[in-house]
Amino acid sequence: MGKNYRVSLTGASASHRRDLASSVRVAHEVGSTIRAATVLVAIAVAAGCLVRSTAREGISRDVISRDVISRDVSAHTIWVIDHGWHTAIVVRRSAVDTTIWPEIDDFPDAAFVEVAWGDRDFYMADRGSAWLAVKAAFLTSGSVLHVVGFSGPFEAHVPRNDVVELEVSRRGFDAMTRLFHEEYQRDEQSRPVRLAPGLYGASWFYSARNRYHLFNTCNTWVARALRAAGLDLAPAGTVTAGGVMQEARRAAASR
């Protein structure tokens, strides 16, 4: 891509020289087009947390049949939420084993807790941008957990957003919340590093451990957490919100 196209035209006929010059211009333009396309693709993938999923009118729910609960009395409900540019997982606080995820005690009055992950600068910015998305993909400043505690009607917290409701086993639920616990970056006293209030409601940003990059976006992380819960998802290649929601619906339909 970075080659400098130089052709010696000495001794060539005028017609031949024109043909060669035209070929050089075409090669240069093709090279420039490919370089531009590569950058655009990188931006598109890097902005996986910016991409909106389609066909979102009101609250659309895909719910696993309740006979799953009758077969597994220890089943627990979780929700995957499409926020338009990223996804998150919501659990009932009362279902959480605090010996596995003790950090949830930061939200003692919450009925539900939402958790998501992403690039620090992009997630904590007042407003996202294409530059911050590209910077996250190639020059990340670190990652953060965004954890929100809320009560009241579930729909009041997620208006106009897609929600996929899933049932997971007790073992899967604990494995998923253990993944949440292990994501917290800790200080010298082994305490989670709380950075700043979150984006809405009773919420906090915490410093996180995993590295955000082009193929490990906020949505890849959610897919990985769902897989830890025992759901048949493929985190690799799942970089957009739409991709996560599609995988979650497929998992719901297969159970």
Nutshell version of this structure?
The protein is an alpha+beta fold and about 260 residues long. About 35% of the residues lie in helices and about 20% in strands.
Report on this structure:
This protein has 255 residues and is of the alpha+beta class. The chain has one domain (46-254). 37% of the residues lie in helices and 20% in strands.
Chain-wise SSE layout:
Layout: H1 14-46, E1 61-63, H2 67-71, E2 76-82, E3 87-92, E4 112-119, H3 120-124, H4 130-138, E5 143-150, H5 154-157, E6 162-168, H6 170-183, E7 194-197, E8 202-208, H7 218-228, H8 241-254
Parallel strand pairs: 1-6
Antiparallel strand pairs: 2-3, 2-6, 3-4, 4-5, 5-8, 7-8
Please tag this protein with its features.
alpha+beta; eight-stranded mixed beta sheet; disordered N terminus
